[in-house]
């Protein structure tokens, strides 16, 4: 596994919008950029970052702007500006032979880009905040942790005490943490070690059958390590979660799986009696499964490095993730 160089003082961060732009919330975006710059890092935006609408531009142009940052040797890492819905259609326009070992970070719709880079090129990526996700007046511990990771301080992460259930309750963008957090170890206490891989299931479900699904080669290459899959569910119904996982399993994704971590669902829904827990159990059986973890859309969330070795524990409602770059 290739781990790119971490950021130093005066490092240059390239920000691009491979999915949706930031045109509708520029004031919040400016606040987010200020927090990033407080680390003595510089910012270089591509032309599509402040675009308005459901997508920041044609797929060819979004890919070009991403590749411009990737091939610019003065750019030390790339942050995706935001999530969205249509990143997938830019992947055919990437220039694979020009992909370099620099950090790429984002979450939600950027999943497809991060996942492809890690599984195809053996380059670790970071599933965490987008560049526009630091728009609170006072940064929470999980937001500060991202910056520590980008500096190379890969610290252990403990489950948080409270999480947010209503984004509308925020004041000046600050998290409204009102609900007590309890990680749920579905099949008993968890103590596992393996290589981390995953992302937003709403996005991953579309990869099988495309040339951007390099999973089988990836899991075979690192089979001796075994895998800890993590899943961030945005809005899939329980039935859709089960059927998506079924497709991924049949596509050979879950060979050598050692455990599964599932974040809190932002928009839970179902049209049958199936629960999210049951959907995962039907696919993974007795394999260690953690539900309601601090991963994904419902804040606060942990920083996950795709490709890193992780030691994960969960006991009595508390969890811990420690990641190693090897």
What is this entry, summarized?
The chain folds into two domains: 12-153, Murein tetrapeptidase LD-carboxypeptidase, N-terminal domain (Rossmann fold, 3-Layer(aba) Sandwich); 162-324, 3-Layer(bba) Sandwich (Glucose Oxidase, domain 1), CATH 3.50.30. It has eight helices and 16 strands.
Structural notes for this entry:
The chain is built from 8 helices and 16 strands. With 326 residues, it is of the alpha/beta class. The protein has 2 domains: 12-153, Murein tetrapeptidase LD-carboxypeptidase, N-terminal domain (Rossmann fold), CATH 3.40.50; 162-324, LD-carboxypeptidase A C-terminal domain-like (Glucose Oxidase, domain 1, 3-Layer(bba) Sandwich). The protein has an 8-stranded mixed sheet. The protein has a 6-stranded mixed sheet with strand order 2-1-3-4-5-14, with helices on both faces. Strands 7-8 form a two-stranded antiparallel ribbon. Helix 7 (238-250) runs parallel beside helix 8 (276-284). The longest helix is centred in the first third of the chain and has 13 residues, at 59-71. The chain is globular. The model has no long low-confidence stretch (mean pLDDT 97).
Overall 3D form:
globular
CATH topology call of the largest domain: Glucose Oxidase, domain 1
The biggest beta sheet is recorded as: 8 strands, mixed
What's the β-strand tally? 16
User: Average pLDDT value?
Assistant: 97
Number of domains: 2
Cα Rg: 18 Å
Helix content: 10-25%
User: Which segments are poorly predicted (pLDDT under 50) over 5 or more consecutive residues?
Assistant: none
CATH class of the largest domain: Alpha Beta
What is the ordering of alpha helices and beta strands?
EHEHEEHEHEEEEEHHEHEHEEEE
Quick one: CATH superfamily of the largest domain? LD-carboxypeptidase A C-terminal domain-like
What's the CATH architecture of the largest domain? 3-Layer(bba) Sandwich
How would you write the strand order of the largest sheet? 6-16-15-10-11-12-13-9
* Helix count, DSSP H or I runs of 4 or more residues: 8
Q: Beta-strand percentage?
A: 15-25%
């Amino acid at each position: 596994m290739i781990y790119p160089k971490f950021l130093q003082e005066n490092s240059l961060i390239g920000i691009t919008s491979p999915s949706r732009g930031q045109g509708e919330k520029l004031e919040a975006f400016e606040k987010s950029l200020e927090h990033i710059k407080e680390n003595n890092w510089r910012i270089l935006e591509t032309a599509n970052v402040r675009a308005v609408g459901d997508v920041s531009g044609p797929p060819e142009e979004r890919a070009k702007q991403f590749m411009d940052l990737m091939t610019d040797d003065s750019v030390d890492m790339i942050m995706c500006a935001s999530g969205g819905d249509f990143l997938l259609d830019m992947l055919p326009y990437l220039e694979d032979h020009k992909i370099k070992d620099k950090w790429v970070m984002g979450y939600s719709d950027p999943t497809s880009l991060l996942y492809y880079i890690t599984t195809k090129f053996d380059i670790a990526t970071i599933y965490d905040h987008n560049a526009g996700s630091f728009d609170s007046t006072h940064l929470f511990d999980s937001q500060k942790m991202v910056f520590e990771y980008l500096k190379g301080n890969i610290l252990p992460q403990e489950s948080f005490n409270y999480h947010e259930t209503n984004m509308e309750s925020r004041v000046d963008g600050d998290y409204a943490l009102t609900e007590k957090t309890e990680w749920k170890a579905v099949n008993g206490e968890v103590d596992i070690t393996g290589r981390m891989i995953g992302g937003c299931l709403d996005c991953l479900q579309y990869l099988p059958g495309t040339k951007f699904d390099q999973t089988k080669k990836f899991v075979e290459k690192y089979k001796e390590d075994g895998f800890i899959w993590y899943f961030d569910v945005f809005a899939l119904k329980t039935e859709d979660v089960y059927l998506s996982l079924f497709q991924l399993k049949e596509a050979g994704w879950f060979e050598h799986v050692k455990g599964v971590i599932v974040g809190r669902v932002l928009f839970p829904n179902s049209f049958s009696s199936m629960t999210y827990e049951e959907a995962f159990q039907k696919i993974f059986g007795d394999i260690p499964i953690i539900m309601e973890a601090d991963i994904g859309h419902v804040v606060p969330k942990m920083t996950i490095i795709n490709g890193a070795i992780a030691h994960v524990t969960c006991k009595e409602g508390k969890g811990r993730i420690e990641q190693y770059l090897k």
